[in-house]
Model the fold of this input.
Amino acid sequence: MALNLLHANDRPGAYPDSWYAATSTPRVHYPSLHGGLRADVCIVGGGFTGLSAALHLAEAGRSVVLLDAQRVGFGASGRNGGQLGSGQRQDQQVLERMVGKEDAAKLWALGEEAKQLVKDLIARHDIDCHLTPGVAWTAEGRRDVRHLHDYGHHLQDSYGYDQIELLDAEACHAMCPSPVYKGGILDHGAGHLHPLNLVLGLARAAAAAGVQIHERSEVLAIEDGPQVEVRTGEGTVRADHLILACNGYLGGLNAQVASRVMPINNFVAATEPLGTEAARVLTRDVAVADSKFVVNYFRLSHDGRLLFGGGESYGYRFPTDIAAKVRAPMTEIFPHLADVKIDYAWGGTLAITMKRLPYLARLSPRILSASGYSGHGVGTATHAGRLMAEAICGQSEGFNTMARIPNTPFPGGPRMRSPLLALAMTWFALRDRLGV
Ligand SMILES: Cc1cc2nc3c(=O)[nH]c(=O)nc-3n(C[C@H](O)[C@H](O)[C@H](O)COP(=O)(O)OP(=O)(O)OC[C@H]3O[C@@H](n4cnc5c(N)ncnc54)[C@H](O)[C@@H]3O)c2cc1C
Done:
Protein backbone atom coordinates (compact mmCIF):
# COMPACT_ATOMS: atom_id res chain seq x y z
CA MET A 1 0.00 0.00 0.00
CA ALA A 2 1.30 3.49 -0.87
CA LEU A 3 2.44 5.67 2.01
CA ASN A 4 -0.77 7.25 3.25
CA LEU A 5 -0.97 9.02 6.56
CA LEU A 6 -4.72 9.60 6.31
CA HIS A 7 -5.42 6.46 8.33
CA ALA A 8 -2.17 5.64 10.12
CA ASN A 9 -2.34 7.58 13.39
CA ASP A 10 -5.85 8.88 14.05
CA ARG A 11 -9.36 7.72 14.77
CA PRO A 12 -11.52 7.96 11.60
CA GLY A 13 -13.31 11.30 11.37
CA ALA A 14 -11.83 12.59 14.64
CA TYR A 15 -9.41 15.39 15.40
CA PRO A 16 -6.30 14.41 17.36
CA ASP A 17 -6.36 14.91 21.11
CA SER A 18 -4.67 18.32 20.86
CA TRP A 19 -4.91 21.49 22.91
CA TYR A 20 -6.30 23.10 19.74
CA ALA A 21 -9.18 20.59 19.51
CA ALA A 22 -9.86 21.02 23.24
CA THR A 23 -10.15 24.81 22.89
CA SER A 24 -11.60 25.27 19.40
CA THR A 25 -14.58 27.36 18.44
CA PRO A 26 -17.76 25.28 17.80
CA ARG A 27 -17.29 22.74 15.03
CA VAL A 28 -19.77 22.13 12.23
CA HIS A 29 -20.20 18.61 10.81
CA TYR A 30 -20.37 18.69 7.02
CA PRO A 31 -22.16 15.71 5.40
CA SER A 32 -20.31 13.06 3.44
CA LEU A 33 -20.81 12.78 -0.30
CA HIS A 34 -23.55 10.46 -1.57
CA GLY A 35 -24.43 10.27 -5.26
CA GLY A 36 -23.28 12.39 -8.18
CA LEU A 37 -22.52 16.12 -8.25
CA ARG A 38 -21.42 18.52 -10.94
CA ALA A 39 -19.33 21.66 -10.21
CA ASP A 40 -17.05 24.16 -11.92
CA VAL A 41 -14.25 23.17 -9.56
CA CYS A 42 -13.69 20.17 -7.30
CA ILE A 43 -11.13 20.52 -4.50
CA VAL A 44 -9.54 17.59 -2.67
CA GLY A 45 -8.38 18.54 0.85
CA GLY A 46 -9.89 20.78 3.50
CA GLY A 47 -6.86 22.52 5.02
CA PHE A 48 -5.62 26.07 4.47
CA THR A 49 -4.81 25.37 0.79
CA GLY A 50 -8.13 23.80 -0.19
CA LEU A 51 -10.38 26.07 1.86
CA SER A 52 -8.67 29.25 0.70
CA ALA A 53 -8.96 28.11 -2.94
CA ALA A 54 -12.62 27.22 -2.36
CA LEU A 55 -13.47 30.53 -0.70
CA HIS A 56 -11.79 32.64 -3.39
CA LEU A 57 -13.37 30.63 -6.22
CA ALA A 58 -16.84 30.91 -4.69
CA GLU A 59 -16.34 34.65 -4.24
CA ALA A 60 -15.45 34.81 -7.96
CA GLY A 61 -18.78 33.15 -8.80
CA ARG A 62 -17.62 29.55 -9.40
CA SER A 63 -19.55 26.54 -8.10
CA VAL A 64 -17.24 24.52 -5.86
CA VAL A 65 -17.34 21.11 -4.19
CA LEU A 66 -14.67 20.45 -1.55
CA LEU A 67 -14.02 16.90 -0.35
CA ASP A 68 -12.04 15.94 2.73
CA ALA A 69 -11.30 12.35 3.67
CA GLN A 70 -11.66 13.12 7.39
CA ARG A 71 -12.65 16.57 8.71
CA VAL A 72 -11.81 20.13 7.68
CA GLY A 73 -8.60 21.00 9.53
CA PHE A 74 -7.89 17.32 10.24
CA GLY A 75 -4.43 17.64 8.61
CA ALA A 76 -1.46 19.87 9.41
CA SER A 77 -3.62 23.01 9.23
CA GLY A 78 -5.39 22.09 12.47
CA ARG A 79 -2.31 20.82 14.32
CA ASN A 80 0.62 23.14 13.63
CA GLY A 81 2.72 25.60 15.64
CA GLY A 82 0.51 28.51 14.62
CA GLN A 83 3.40 30.71 13.48
CA LEU A 84 2.56 33.07 10.63
CA GLY A 85 6.03 33.81 9.25
CA SER A 86 7.38 36.41 6.84
CA GLY A 87 8.67 35.66 3.33
CA GLN A 88 9.29 32.06 2.31
CA ARG A 89 10.64 29.04 4.22
CA GLN A 90 14.11 29.69 2.78
CA ASP A 91 15.74 32.97 3.69
CA GLN A 92 16.14 35.62 1.02
CA GLN A 93 19.91 35.22 0.68
CA VAL A 94 19.44 31.54 -0.16
CA LEU A 95 16.68 32.43 -2.63
CA GLU A 96 18.83 35.08 -4.33
CA ARG A 97 21.47 32.41 -4.99
CA MET A 98 18.86 29.87 -6.06
CA VAL A 99 16.66 31.87 -8.47
CA GLY A 100 18.44 35.24 -8.89
CA LYS A 101 17.69 38.58 -7.28
CA GLU A 102 14.70 39.46 -9.44
CA ASP A 103 12.72 36.28 -8.76
CA ALA A 104 13.86 36.29 -5.11
CA ALA A 105 12.29 39.75 -4.77
CA LYS A 106 9.06 38.44 -6.33
CA LEU A 107 9.05 35.52 -3.89
CA TRP A 108 9.55 37.91 -0.96
CA ALA A 109 6.64 40.02 -2.21
CA LEU A 110 4.44 36.91 -2.56
CA GLY A 111 5.41 35.85 0.99
CA GLU A 112 4.42 39.25 2.31
CA GLU A 113 1.17 39.06 0.35
CA ALA A 114 0.55 35.65 1.98
CA LYS A 115 1.02 37.04 5.48
CA GLN A 116 -1.27 39.98 4.74
CA LEU A 117 -3.88 37.67 3.17
CA VAL A 118 -4.16 35.66 6.40
CA LYS A 119 -4.50 38.84 8.46
CA ASP A 120 -7.16 40.18 6.06
CA LEU A 121 -9.14 36.91 6.02
CA ILE A 122 -9.19 36.85 9.83
CA ALA A 123 -10.45 40.43 9.93
CA ARG A 124 -12.92 40.12 7.04
CA HIS A 125 -14.53 36.91 8.29
CA ASP A 126 -14.24 37.78 11.97
CA ILE A 127 -12.29 34.60 12.79
CA ASP A 128 -11.60 34.22 16.50
CA CYS A 129 -8.07 32.75 16.41
CA HIS A 130 -6.04 34.94 18.82
CA LEU A 131 -3.81 36.46 16.13
CA THR A 132 -0.93 38.12 18.01
CA PRO A 133 2.11 39.89 16.46
CA GLY A 134 5.72 38.80 17.00
CA VAL A 135 7.88 35.81 16.06
CA ALA A 136 11.50 35.60 17.27
CA TRP A 137 14.32 33.56 15.75
CA THR A 138 16.91 32.65 18.35
CA ALA A 139 20.32 31.00 18.20
CA GLU A 140 22.73 29.28 20.57
CA GLY A 141 26.06 30.11 18.99
CA ARG A 142 27.67 33.49 18.27
CA ARG A 143 28.08 32.67 14.57
CA ASP A 144 24.36 31.92 14.23
CA VAL A 145 23.39 35.08 16.14
CA ARG A 146 25.63 37.12 13.82
CA HIS A 147 23.98 35.46 10.82
CA LEU A 148 20.50 36.36 12.12
CA HIS A 149 21.55 39.99 12.73
CA ASP A 150 23.06 40.21 9.22
CA TYR A 151 19.81 38.85 7.86
CA GLY A 152 17.82 41.50 9.72
CA HIS A 153 20.01 44.18 8.13
CA HIS A 154 19.67 42.55 4.71
CA LEU A 155 15.87 42.60 4.90
CA GLN A 156 15.97 46.28 5.86
CA ASP A 157 18.55 47.30 3.22
CA SER A 158 17.47 45.17 0.24
CA TYR A 159 13.73 44.73 0.83
CA GLY A 160 12.84 47.83 2.88
CA TYR A 161 11.48 45.54 5.62
CA ASP A 162 11.60 47.52 8.87
CA GLN A 163 9.84 45.13 11.26
CA ILE A 164 12.95 43.39 12.64
CA GLU A 165 14.27 44.09 16.15
CA LEU A 166 17.81 42.80 16.78
CA LEU A 167 18.22 40.98 20.10
CA ASP A 168 21.62 40.80 21.77
CA ALA A 169 22.22 38.22 24.52
CA GLU A 170 20.74 40.46 27.21
CA ALA A 171 17.60 41.41 25.27
CA CYS A 172 17.10 37.79 24.19
CA HIS A 173 17.41 36.57 27.77
CA ALA A 174 15.00 39.27 28.96
CA MET A 175 12.43 37.98 26.43
CA CYS A 176 13.17 34.26 26.86
CA PRO A 177 15.05 33.38 30.05
CA SER A 178 16.34 30.04 28.72
CA PRO A 179 20.04 29.44 29.47
CA VAL A 180 20.50 28.23 25.91
CA TYR A 181 19.93 31.19 23.58
CA LYS A 182 22.52 33.91 23.06
CA GLY A 183 20.64 36.31 20.77
CA GLY A 184 18.37 36.54 17.77
CA ILE A 185 15.87 38.71 15.93
CA LEU A 186 12.24 39.53 16.63
CA ASP A 187 9.97 39.99 13.61
CA HIS A 188 7.08 42.25 14.59
CA GLY A 189 5.40 41.76 11.20
CA ALA A 190 5.04 38.00 11.73
CA GLY A 191 2.55 36.57 14.22
CA HIS A 192 1.05 33.55 15.91
CA LEU A 193 -2.50 32.20 16.12
CA HIS A 194 -4.80 29.26 16.94
CA PRO A 195 -4.54 27.33 13.67
CA LEU A 196 -7.56 25.05 14.09
CA ASN A 197 -9.77 28.06 14.75
CA LEU A 198 -8.38 29.70 11.62
CA VAL A 199 -9.16 26.67 9.46
CA LEU A 200 -12.65 26.25 10.99
CA GLY A 201 -13.28 29.94 10.32
CA LEU A 202 -12.19 29.56 6.70
CA ALA A 203 -14.55 26.57 6.32
CA ARG A 204 -17.46 28.60 7.73
CA ALA A 205 -16.66 31.49 5.36
CA ALA A 206 -16.37 29.11 2.38
CA ALA A 207 -19.69 27.41 3.21
CA ALA A 208 -21.37 30.81 3.60
CA ALA A 209 -20.02 31.80 0.15
CA GLY A 210 -21.71 28.71 -1.34
CA VAL A 211 -19.01 26.02 -1.28
CA GLN A 212 -20.42 22.50 -0.79
CA ILE A 213 -18.15 20.88 1.78
CA HIS A 214 -18.21 17.12 2.26
CA GLU A 215 -16.25 15.51 5.10
CA ARG A 216 -15.56 11.77 5.51
CA SER A 217 -15.34 11.67 1.70
CA GLU A 218 -12.00 10.23 0.71
CA VAL A 219 -11.13 10.57 -2.96
CA LEU A 220 -10.09 7.15 -4.21
CA ALA A 221 -9.66 7.80 -7.93
CA ILE A 222 -9.32 10.70 -10.35
CA GLU A 223 -10.00 10.43 -14.05
CA ASP A 224 -8.79 13.23 -16.30
CA GLY A 225 -10.58 13.86 -19.62
CA PRO A 226 -12.81 16.50 -21.24
CA GLN A 227 -13.98 16.89 -17.63
CA VAL A 228 -12.37 15.58 -14.47
CA GLU A 229 -14.20 12.82 -12.65
CA VAL A 230 -13.47 12.24 -8.99
CA ARG A 231 -14.68 9.14 -7.15
CA THR A 232 -15.19 8.57 -3.44
CA GLY A 233 -16.58 5.40 -1.83
CA GLU A 234 -20.19 6.55 -2.28
CA GLY A 235 -20.20 9.37 -4.79
CA THR A 236 -18.71 11.11 -7.80
CA VAL A 237 -18.01 14.71 -8.72
CA ARG A 238 -17.61 15.85 -12.33
CA ALA A 239 -15.90 19.20 -12.72
CA ASP A 240 -14.13 21.45 -15.24
CA HIS A 241 -11.15 21.84 -12.91
CA LEU A 242 -9.64 19.93 -10.04
CA ILE A 243 -7.40 21.22 -7.27
CA LEU A 244 -5.25 18.84 -5.26
CA ALA A 245 -4.68 20.26 -1.77
CA CYS A 246 -3.60 17.19 0.22
CA ASN A 247 -0.04 18.18 1.22
CA GLY A 248 1.51 15.54 3.55
CA TYR A 249 -1.62 13.34 3.38
CA LEU A 250 -1.57 12.87 -0.41
CA GLY A 251 -0.40 9.23 -0.34
CA GLY A 252 -0.38 7.79 -3.83
CA LEU A 253 -3.17 9.95 -5.30
CA ASN A 254 -0.80 11.58 -7.82
CA ALA A 255 2.61 10.17 -8.76
CA GLN A 256 4.13 13.42 -10.09
CA VAL A 257 3.43 15.25 -6.84
CA ALA A 258 4.33 12.26 -4.65
CA SER A 259 7.80 12.07 -6.20
CA ARG A 260 8.55 15.74 -5.36
CA VAL A 261 6.74 16.22 -2.06
CA MET A 262 7.65 14.10 0.93
CA PRO A 263 5.61 13.69 4.13
CA ILE A 264 7.38 14.16 7.45
CA ASN A 265 5.90 14.10 10.94
CA ASN A 266 6.37 16.79 13.56
CA PHE A 267 5.20 16.89 17.18
CA VAL A 268 3.75 19.38 19.65
CA ALA A 269 3.05 19.24 23.39
CA ALA A 270 0.99 21.51 25.64
CA THR A 271 2.03 21.60 29.30
CA GLU A 272 -0.31 22.17 32.21
CA PRO A 273 -0.94 25.92 32.82
CA LEU A 274 2.36 27.30 34.16
CA GLY A 275 1.07 30.06 36.45
CA THR A 276 3.93 32.29 37.63
CA GLU A 277 6.46 29.90 36.05
CA ALA A 278 5.33 31.18 32.63
CA ALA A 279 7.60 34.21 33.09
CA ARG A 280 10.60 31.83 33.13
CA VAL A 281 9.64 30.76 29.60
CA LEU A 282 8.65 34.01 27.91
CA THR A 283 8.09 37.52 29.20
CA ARG A 284 6.53 38.77 25.96
CA ASP A 285 3.55 37.29 24.10
CA VAL A 286 5.60 36.25 21.05
CA ALA A 287 6.36 32.93 19.40
CA VAL A 288 9.92 31.64 19.13
CA ALA A 289 11.66 29.38 16.63
CA ASP A 290 15.31 28.48 16.94
CA SER A 291 17.96 27.90 14.31
CA LYS A 292 18.42 24.16 14.90
CA PHE A 293 18.18 21.92 11.84
CA VAL A 294 15.17 20.23 13.48
CA VAL A 295 13.61 23.49 14.62
CA ASN A 296 12.31 23.88 18.18
CA TYR A 297 9.39 26.31 18.32
CA PHE A 298 7.26 27.46 21.21
CA ARG A 299 4.97 30.08 22.67
CA LEU A 300 2.57 30.53 25.55
CA SER A 301 -1.06 29.69 24.95
CA HIS A 302 -3.75 32.17 25.92
CA ASP A 303 -4.45 29.98 29.00
CA GLY A 304 -0.82 30.10 30.15
CA ARG A 305 0.54 26.75 28.92
CA LEU A 306 3.78 26.22 27.08
CA LEU A 307 3.01 24.99 23.57
CA PHE A 308 6.28 23.40 22.48
CA GLY A 309 7.00 21.87 19.08
CA GLY A 310 10.02 19.75 18.44
CA GLY A 311 11.15 16.39 17.15
CA GLU A 312 10.45 14.85 13.77
CA SER A 313 9.95 11.37 12.39
CA TYR A 314 10.05 10.16 8.84
CA GLY A 315 7.99 6.98 8.73
CA TYR A 316 4.37 5.99 8.44
CA ARG A 317 3.53 5.81 12.16
CA PHE A 318 3.97 8.32 14.96
CA PRO A 319 6.00 7.24 18.01
CA THR A 320 3.91 5.67 20.78
CA ASP A 321 5.03 8.22 23.41
CA ILE A 322 4.80 11.61 21.71
CA ALA A 323 5.01 13.48 25.04
CA ALA A 324 8.41 11.88 25.76
CA LYS A 325 9.58 12.74 22.25
CA VAL A 326 8.78 16.43 22.76
CA ARG A 327 9.87 16.54 26.42
CA ALA A 328 13.49 15.82 25.41
CA PRO A 329 14.12 19.03 23.39
CA MET A 330 11.81 21.03 25.70
CA THR A 331 13.96 20.12 28.70
CA GLU A 332 17.15 21.08 26.83
CA ILE A 333 15.73 24.58 26.33
CA PHE A 334 13.96 24.85 29.71
CA PRO A 335 15.72 22.55 32.23
CA HIS A 336 13.43 23.75 35.03
CA LEU A 337 10.46 22.16 33.22
CA ALA A 338 11.93 18.63 33.33
CA ASP A 339 9.04 17.35 35.46
CA VAL A 340 6.23 19.60 34.27
CA LYS A 341 2.98 17.81 33.50
CA ILE A 342 2.14 17.51 29.79
CA ASP A 343 -1.64 17.64 29.29
CA TYR A 344 -1.74 17.20 25.50
CA ALA A 345 0.74 15.80 22.97
CA TRP A 346 0.02 15.24 19.30
CA GLY A 347 1.67 14.78 15.94
CA GLY A 348 0.94 16.05 12.47
CA THR A 349 2.21 15.42 8.98
CA LEU A 350 3.55 18.19 6.81
CA ALA A 351 5.33 17.96 3.48
CA ILE A 352 8.74 19.09 2.34
CA THR A 353 10.42 19.44 -1.05
CA MET A 354 14.08 19.05 -2.01
CA LYS A 355 14.53 22.86 -2.05
CA ARG A 356 12.25 23.49 0.95
CA LEU A 357 10.03 25.67 -1.24
CA PRO A 358 6.42 24.98 -2.21
CA TYR A 359 5.64 22.83 -5.24
CA LEU A 360 2.88 24.45 -7.31
CA ALA A 361 2.17 22.65 -10.56
CA ARG A 362 -0.26 22.42 -13.43
CA LEU A 363 -0.52 18.65 -13.66
CA SER A 364 -2.77 18.79 -16.74
CA PRO A 365 -4.86 21.53 -18.40
CA ARG A 366 -7.58 20.83 -15.81
CA ILE A 367 -5.65 19.84 -12.67
CA LEU A 368 -3.66 22.12 -10.37
CA SER A 369 -1.79 21.16 -7.24
CA ALA A 370 -0.03 23.03 -4.43
CA SER A 371 1.84 21.48 -1.52
CA GLY A 372 5.29 21.05 0.07
CA TYR A 373 5.30 24.24 2.18
CA SER A 374 8.06 22.77 4.37
CA GLY A 375 6.88 24.04 7.75
CA HIS A 376 5.91 27.49 6.48
CA GLY A 377 2.33 26.82 5.41
CA VAL A 378 0.09 29.03 7.55
CA GLY A 379 0.68 31.91 5.16
CA THR A 380 1.98 30.21 2.03
CA ALA A 381 -0.68 27.45 1.88
CA THR A 382 -3.50 29.97 2.32
CA HIS A 383 -1.90 32.09 -0.38
CA ALA A 384 -1.29 29.14 -2.73
CA GLY A 385 -5.02 28.41 -2.50
CA ARG A 386 -5.79 31.93 -3.69
CA LEU A 387 -3.16 31.71 -6.46
CA MET A 388 -4.80 28.52 -7.77
CA ALA A 389 -8.23 30.16 -7.62
CA GLU A 390 -6.88 33.13 -9.60
CA ALA A 391 -5.22 30.83 -12.15
CA ILE A 392 -8.52 29.02 -12.74
CA CYS A 393 -10.19 32.41 -13.22
CA GLY A 394 -7.58 33.33 -15.87
CA GLN A 395 -5.01 35.30 -13.84
CA SER A 396 -1.96 33.06 -13.67
CA GLU A 397 0.93 35.46 -12.96
CA GLY A 398 1.37 34.72 -9.24
CA PHE A 399 0.79 30.98 -9.77
CA ASN A 400 3.35 30.92 -12.58
CA THR A 401 6.00 32.71 -10.48
CA MET A 402 5.64 30.05 -7.78
CA ALA A 403 5.45 27.22 -10.35
CA ARG A 404 8.79 28.40 -11.84
CA ILE A 405 10.65 27.45 -8.66
CA PRO A 406 12.83 24.52 -9.69
CA ASN A 407 11.60 21.45 -7.81
CA THR A 408 13.36 18.17 -8.51
CA PRO A 409 12.08 14.73 -7.49
CA PHE A 410 13.49 13.11 -4.35
CA PRO A 411 16.08 10.45 -5.12
CA GLY A 412 14.56 6.99 -4.92
CA GLY A 413 10.98 8.13 -5.74
CA PRO A 414 8.01 7.67 -3.38
CA ARG A 415 9.16 4.21 -2.24
CA MET A 416 12.77 4.97 -1.23
CA ARG A 417 12.53 8.67 -0.33
CA SER A 418 11.63 8.09 3.34
CA PRO A 419 14.56 5.82 4.31
CA LEU A 420 17.00 8.05 2.40
CA LEU A 421 15.59 11.17 4.02
CA ALA A 422 15.69 9.59 7.46
CA LEU A 423 19.40 8.95 6.98
CA ALA A 424 20.10 12.49 5.79
CA MET A 425 18.00 14.12 8.50
CA THR A 426 19.57 12.03 11.26
CA TRP A 427 22.99 13.15 10.03
CA PHE A 428 22.02 16.85 10.13
CA ALA A 429 20.31 16.50 13.53
CA LEU A 430 23.49 14.83 14.85
CA ARG A 431 25.56 17.78 13.58
CA ASP A 432 23.23 20.08 15.56
CA ARG A 433 23.83 18.06 18.71
CA LEU A 434 27.58 18.11 18.20
CA GLY A 435 27.48 21.84 17.44
CA VAL A 436 29.29 21.53 14.07
C1 LIG B 1 3.33 19.85 13.88
C2 LIG B 1 3.37 20.86 12.77
C3 LIG B 1 3.78 22.16 13.05
C4 LIG B 1 3.80 23.13 12.03
N1 LIG B 1 4.07 24.41 12.36
C5 LIG B 1 3.91 25.39 11.44
C6 LIG B 1 4.02 26.74 11.82
O1 LIG B 1 4.18 27.09 12.98
N2 LIG B 1 3.90 27.67 10.84
C7 LIG B 1 3.67 27.34 9.54
O2 LIG B 1 3.58 28.24 8.71
N3 LIG B 1 3.50 26.06 9.17
C8 LIG B 1 3.60 25.08 10.08
N4 LIG B 1 3.39 23.77 9.73
C9 LIG B 1 3.07 23.47 8.33
C10 LIG B 1 1.60 23.79 7.99
O3 LIG B 1 0.76 23.33 9.00
C11 LIG B 1 1.23 23.14 6.63
O4 LIG B 1 2.16 23.55 5.66
C12 LIG B 1 -0.17 23.54 6.16
O5 LIG B 1 -1.11 23.39 7.18
C13 LIG B 1 -0.57 22.73 4.94
O6 LIG B 1 -1.93 22.99 4.66
P1 LIG B 1 -2.68 22.14 3.56
O7 LIG B 1 -4.06 22.63 3.49
O8 LIG B 1 -1.90 22.15 2.29
O9 LIG B 1 -2.61 20.63 4.08
P2 LIG B 1 -3.36 19.92 5.32
O10 LIG B 1 -3.80 20.90 6.33
O11 LIG B 1 -2.49 18.80 5.78
O12 LIG B 1 -4.70 19.36 4.66
C14 LIG B 1 -4.69 18.30 3.76
C15 LIG B 1 -6.10 17.70 3.80
O13 LIG B 1 -6.22 16.82 2.70
C16 LIG B 1 -7.10 15.79 3.08
N5 LIG B 1 -6.89 14.66 2.14
C17 LIG B 1 -5.73 14.03 1.87
N6 LIG B 1 -5.95 13.04 0.96
C18 LIG B 1 -7.27 13.07 0.66
C19 LIG B 1 -8.09 12.28 -0.20
N7 LIG B 1 -7.61 11.27 -0.93
N8 LIG B 1 -9.42 12.59 -0.26
C20 LIG B 1 -9.93 13.62 0.44
N9 LIG B 1 -9.18 14.37 1.30
C21 LIG B 1 -7.86 14.10 1.40
C22 LIG B 1 -6.70 15.48 4.53
O14 LIG B 1 -7.72 14.84 5.25
C23 LIG B 1 -6.38 16.87 5.06
O15 LIG B 1 -7.46 17.44 5.79
C24 LIG B 1 3.41 22.76 10.69
C25 LIG B 1 3.01 21.46 10.42
C26 LIG B 1 2.98 20.51 11.45
C27 LIG B 1 2.51 19.12 11.13
In short: The domain at 5-79+196-261+354-422 is CATH 3.50.50.60 (FAD/NAD(P)-binding domain). The chain is about 35% helix and 25% strand.
